[in-house]
Amino acid sequence: MQLREATGPAMVIRREDYTPPPFWIDRIELTFDLDPAKTRVLNKMVLRRNTEVPAQPLRLDGEELNLARVVLNGGGCSFKMDGDALVLGSLPEGPEPFELEIFTTCSPEKNTQLSGLYLSQGDFFTQCEAEGFRRITYFLDRPDVMASYTVTLRADKDKYPVLLSNGNLVEQGELPDNRHFAKWVDPHRKPSYLFALVAGRLISREQRIVTRAGKEHLLQVYVRPGDMDKTEHAMNSLIASVVWDEARFGLPLDLERFMIVATSDFNMGAMENKGLNIFNTKYVLANSATATDTDFANIESVVGHEYFHNWTGNRITCRDWFQLSLKEGLTVFRDQEFSMDLCAEPSARAVKRIEDVRVLRTMQFPEDAGPMAHPVRPDQYVEINNFYTVTVYEKGAEVVRMMQTLVGRDGFRKGMDLYFQRHDGQAVTCDDFAQAIADANPDSELARQLVPFKRWYSQSGTPRLQASGHYDAAERRYTLTLSQSCPATPGQSEKQPFVIPVTLGLIDAQGQDLALRLQGESQTSRGTRLLVLTQASESFAFEDIDAEPVPSLLRGFSAPVIVDNGLTDDQLLHLLAHDSDAFNRWEAGQQLALRRAVQAVRAEGPVGAAPLDEAFIGAMRAVLRHPTLDAALKELVLTLPAETYIAEQLDVVDPQRIHAVRETMREQLAQALQADWAWAYEQHKDNGAYRPDPLSSGRRALAGMALTMLCIAARETGDTVWPGKAYQRFKDAGNMTDRFNALSALVVSGQPLAQEALARFHAMFKDEALVIDKWFALQAGAPDRGGNVLPAVRQLMTHPDFNLKNPNRARSVIFSFCSANPAGFHRSDAAGYVFWSERVLELDAINPQVAARLARALDRWKKLAEPYRSAAREAIARVAAKSDLSADVREVVTRALAE
Ligand code: B3K
Ligand code: ZN
Q1: What is the 3 state secondary structure string of 253-273?
Q2: 306 lines ligand 1 (CB under 6 A)
């Protein structure tokens, strides 16, 4: 375990303190002698003073490096160490370039943080974002310093036959002692966080493509030998990404060669290093036997995401890390649009939108209401890695989406064009982006409201939107009053109104969209239209309305807000049955379910056996049996709101009671619709040869859900037919989706056959790490029955396949339990919290980034009912009391305990 210095006050970095770098680094030539125990790094840089800022010493960032030599313009030079920084005071005074040569060594095999240069299964990989490059060499490790890179890699020929870095391979050859070298030149300037190297025994799938300009490009997907049969989908996704970015945004591939490399040891999903993307195997490897539909869809979107960074992030990068959402929010928006555009059917687009909104609501909304709440463009941080959050990513994407809504799809394209015209090759800010979109659309509401609109970047917290309708029969007028407010968040007690785009329709008694004309307008429009709320409260009067309509608000979820639409159950049922907007149909069903869940949780006494009424059950049956609705949409409508989402609706949270209520509701739906589930299963279970397209994956999802419901119903009646069928399906399935759904049906419903199936599954896939991750995760996330999951999790941690150092494996067991299994985790005996604190500390000594993510599992402790609340606070305090915590975990627990 590495020792850390006893902590003084945390170093807070503030956005307002930004100053441009005192030096520029124009060129860097790196030479690596790769060796697991001691890698030697020679760094030759050409620097010059930035004459626009007052002269000051050069402070180069470094971390865990052994410094051997510093040479200035070919001769010696004086330097000193200040903490981790290498400080050079006596440098040439003029603006002329000078050369600095720094020779260091580092130890990749000791690097368990997986930041900087590290080993994964014997191969070398790097991860430099945000501040990993300083763990490789001394540098101005900040995104606004962009340099041209030349990289030479030298290593043993047999152990590391493949040597990769960014850009183009310009030279390679033999060296003495069975070594070889490869020299790479990146034609694009880049910040240090986009540097990458890979060395190891790898094989690649290759594809040559010709882009619109007639240029040929080489695409490669590198994996370990034996994984080639799982690379086709990633390659297809990459090709689709290249085609899409050119078609939708006019952005071509700007490299002769584009590489993706997969590693099984990775802190997050993937990394957009210029021309050399490094991916977690989870987001590359897939075939029908080992990956589910969800895996296939995730691979498509992550491959797209990293590829789209090539322009949004790499060509135009962030001035400083406070601007992270400039690249992440925009690129998430782009990957969401990409996945939607690949859907042939409009309803599949809606399904994708629902899935994205579900992530926003179940993860970002709680973040925005908890101790780690921060604006999309944060104002301060201690450890930047803690700010790669759902707020920066997902809420950031919603902010970009609202801009598109306000200027229209074509207007948004114009805005992107202007953004690239102005800023290509630069490191810029979120303000620069918003300004470009507005300037390209001078007549838009965005341009008129740009200053207040940008509050979405500066104010944290989820706004509440309240709507109330009033119908005046005599005037044939429907008046909709929209009001907004936003709760206080850490460091922000007062909020100013947001600019909220509200997409809406009014629906008549027959379920048709009404023609809409606002007071003062001469034109009528049918269907959906856009209102923009800019004040704390505004009223909108619709004319020529013959009878009271039902408003369908925020269609497609046009703003990341919590809506109180004031609708009755009957009105929601009307929307569920008729809304022309598929998103709002789903939303109406969710609201109906949520009301019932909240009511049952709040009620006194034991949880009643039947929280659901006939009207709700009948509506669910109608959706399930609907002749034309998509299977994927049906599955989403019939899925009850998550326990964490139910918890967000309550001021005081009893996780056990919420779990009991949701389980009871699910049992009731399972039983009441038994015949319908059986029908749905038979109708959707056969789908021919496997293809991961939205239509057939929707059918598999619904069949899987039906099977789970039938096994749940069987548990109550003691019937063995459906569990038997599920077991048979598990054995015979032709693809992983059907097989895993059947296994999960047995585990989730607590069928005795589950144990046998789990053992069989492990034996079948023991050599497939990603499948074994699923096997662990399913058990750690299983519904808790009398506190049985925690002992099972402790048992799983002693399994020979468990490895705490591998982030995917740690996540599959520990995170599946602490972050995704509320009823298993929040135990009245506090044993879940004890387990959590042990794991946070244990992981922190290995990998602070992963530990800090886990630390966030107790973010919402203040909302918990007793005895959970006190026990959770004690557990957090226990972690905080450790003197040698990483800055990562320290920041999370300090904020959690703050008043
Ligand atoms: N940009 C990386 C994330 C880096 C995280 C550093 N802790 C992946 C992505 O968003 O595409
Ligand atoms: Zn990204």
Answers
A1: CCCCEEEEEEECCCCCCEECC
A2: yes
